[in-house]
Write a structure and sequence with these properties.
Blueprint: E1 4-5, E2 12-13, E3 16-18, H1 23-31, H2 38-48, E4 55-57, H3 58-65, E5 68-73, E6 80-85, H4 92-95
Antiparallel strand pairs: 1-2, 3-4, 5-6
Helix pairs in contact: 1-2
Length: about 120
């Protein structure tokens, strides 16, 4: 399984987000990181000043990154539809940052007992 290590908690995870490379997007992304201590805040402030590629587990970013859903009335009595609203100052780039996988580190499905899937 392809995994990355969270820059804050060092947890290994296969679901993660990558810091954007565009400076303005990077700053927005890092402001949304969920922090629990002063040392984590200091670490994130340092990351705003450099261009290092960092990975974060969903524990540190998911709660503030995902769009929220609201139900509104559509045309017609009692009709409803689901609309997605983005939190203020959030872009799709900051939510769904691309996963930069090393092409040499691919999942292998050639293990015994897994053929035929």
């Amino acid at each position: 399984i392809f995994q990355r290590t969270c820059h804050i908690c060092s947890e290994k995870t296969c679901e993660y987000r990558v810091t954007p490379t565009i400076p303005s997007e990077r700053a927005k992304f890092l402001e949304k990181i969920i922090l629990s201590s002063a040392s984590e805040k200091k670490l994130v402030e340092m990351l705003k000043k450099n261009e290092d590629r960092c990975y974060f587990c969903l524990v540190h970013i998911a709660n503030r990154q995902l769009p929220t859903m609201r139900v509104t009335k559509s045309d017609g009595p009692g009709a409803k539809r689901n609309d997605y609203q983005m939190p203020a100052n959030t872009t799709l780039t900051s939510i769904y940052s691309t996963v930069d996988e090393d092409p040499t580190e691919q999942d292998s499905f050639d293990e015994p007992g897994l053929s035929g899937f």
